[in-house]
Write a structure and sequence with these properties.
By secondary structure, the chain is mostly helical. It has two domains: 68 residues; 222 residues, no CATH class. A hairpin with a 2-residue loop joins strand 1 and strand 2. The radius of gyration is 38 Å and the shape is elongated. It has a two-stranded antiparallel ribbon.
């Protein structure tokens, strides 16, 4: 189909040709002159039409090329932004994994040191030193909390980039709540078990608290609970990394997709942005989980307070 401008030109030429014919028919133009020059006039008009059509087609091709170039530029910018988002999410995810690993490792080494120290009390010779301290443990957990909060903020920042990405925010908030509750229960026991290390006059003095087997078993119980919930949190971070790869940078690698996690324990949750799973996952993290239940209780309490004020 010709562009509108070309159709108008062709209609004008046809109209002029018809007008000349009518004028000659009624004697306004000399009939003999018209008949002898009609072919030449028509040729000139067709030449003009050809020039107009050619110019219009060239302009049309140029515009199409420009639009195609703009589309390529937009796609390039989109890919560039998606890569930036992926790198940011991946960097924050790595920071969380490393921070959680540091806390878990420190707790595990602390448990091993306490156990070895208790065993050395029943033997002759010096007591086995416990190198871990509650102060360092609290600092490590604080660093992990900061890393988790930063990742949650980053997910919230880029929720527009992936549909239903907010399910990861719900998952991370829920899992971090569980680890925080475990750690808060563990710290008072760790303070009673792990020695205080003071350095004065360049001499390290180790002050051992009253360590006993019962406290050690309580430590191990809370440590294992923390480790389980921390592993859940790290698993959700792994799911986030997979989702970011598939949704943001898959196109850069010929559409290849990273596989989702497949836990051996069927009770463990795999977080995805799949539409079919979104409602179930959102309900669990915001309503059914420990954090979800506390949130619902808080909401109900606020509503009850507001209702009582109205009455």
């Amino acid at each position: 189909m010709f562009p509108t401008a070309v159709r108008i030109v062709l209609l004008l030429i046809a109209g002029l040709f018809i007008a000349f014919g009518v004028l000659s028919l009624f004697g306004v133009l000399d009939r003999a002159w018209w008949l002898s020059n009609a072919a030449a006039i028509g040729g000139h008009l067709l030449t003009v039409a050809g020039i107009v059509v050619g110019a219009q087609m060239i302009l049309h091709q140029v515009n199409r090329g420009h639009e195609a170039s703009l589309a390529v530029q937009r796609e390039g910018k989109r890919n560039e932004l998606q890569l930036i988002i992926y790198e940011s999410l991946s960097s924050h995810a790595t920071a969380v994994n490393e921070a959680i690993l540091d806390v878990n490792s420190y707790l595990r080494r602390g448990g091993w040191s306490i156990d070895t120290h208790l065993r050395s009390r029943g033997r002759a010779g010096p007591l086995t030193e416990i190198s871990q301290s509650a102060e360092v443990l609290v600092d490590l957990h604080g660093d992990a909390g900061k890393a988790i909060s930063a990742l949650i903020r980053e997910v919230e920042k880029w929720e527009i980039s992936i549909p239903r990405l907010d399910v990861f925010r719900f998952a991370l908030i829920s899992a971090s709540h569980d680890t925080r509750e475990d750690f808060n229960s563990l710290v008072p026991i760790a303070v009673r078990l792990l020695p205080r290390h003071d350095i004065g006059d360049n001499v390290k003095q180790i002050f051992y608290p009253a360590i006993n087997e019962e406290l050690f078993q309580q430590y191990e119980q809370h440590r294992l609970s923390f480790e389980e919930h921390a592993n859940d949190l790290v698993s959700y971070v792994m799911d986030l990394r997979v989702e970011a790869q598939n949704q943001l940078v898959s196109g850069l690698f010929e559409g290849r997709r990273a596989p989702h996690r497949q836990p051996e324990d069927p009770s463990k949750i795999v977080v995805t942005t799949n539409e079919a799973d979104y409602e179930r996952l959102t309900r669990f993290f915001t309503i059914e989980s420990a954090h979800g239940k506390l949130s619902q209780e808080a909401i109900a309490s606020v509503r009850e307070m507001l209702a009582s004020r109205k009455n």
